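**User:** Here is a favour to ask of a fellow structure person. Please take any protein you like and set down a full record of it. No explanation is needed for now; the record alone will do.

**Assistant:**
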Amino acid sequence: MSRILITSALPYINGIKHLGNLAGSMLPADVWARFMRARGHDVLYVCATDEHGTPAELAAAAAGQDVRTYCDEQHQVQKKAADAFSLSFDIFGRSSNAPNTRLTQHFAKVLEERGLIEERVDRMIYSIDDARFLPDRYVEGTCPHCAYEKARGDQCDNCGRLLDPTDLINPYSAVSGSRNLEVRDTRHLYLLQTKIADDVRAWVDARSPSGSRWRAPSPISIWTKA
């Protein structure tokens, strides 16, 4: 008997999940969890609502709620949907819960102590009317590749290209619709991933079962590619 941890992609907190979410990540993981349990393995199948980032804040603003209230309500909605489909989660948690917060802060502290966090100056769109910087989905505009007029600042849903907010043509604020924007300097923290890429690859390779179909090395090799 083996102890097996199975996770599926965390659904964003905004909006009711659809069959694409179910079939794309949750159902395959659920089938695998049930299969491994049936074979007698000790399985822990974990998922959660992703309550961080711009999707949560934008959706809460559209609903006229503060972010915490919105996330509290939507977590219950998504949990009920998962229960209705009989997904066999052992844990369906929240990215905002206290243990996850403590763990994330611990990782950030250790990375900083080891010199793996660096502050850099970036150029970002600033909304004068909203009096705030506008990261990724806070900016919409015309895609420079396919001319789709409702592309977001992180990706164009029409052609699938990944974008930066400053790539958009005729950008406007997704918060207020204002076009009174300018590009300003702002400071951000970066993980110096190239400094640990070799160690991460070595760690994964040493733990990859020989001759197995273990899928983790494939994305990890991409993420750690110098």
About this structure: The mean pLDDT is 90. The chain is about 35% helix and 25% strand. The domain at 3-98 is CATH 3.40.50.620 (Rossmann fold).
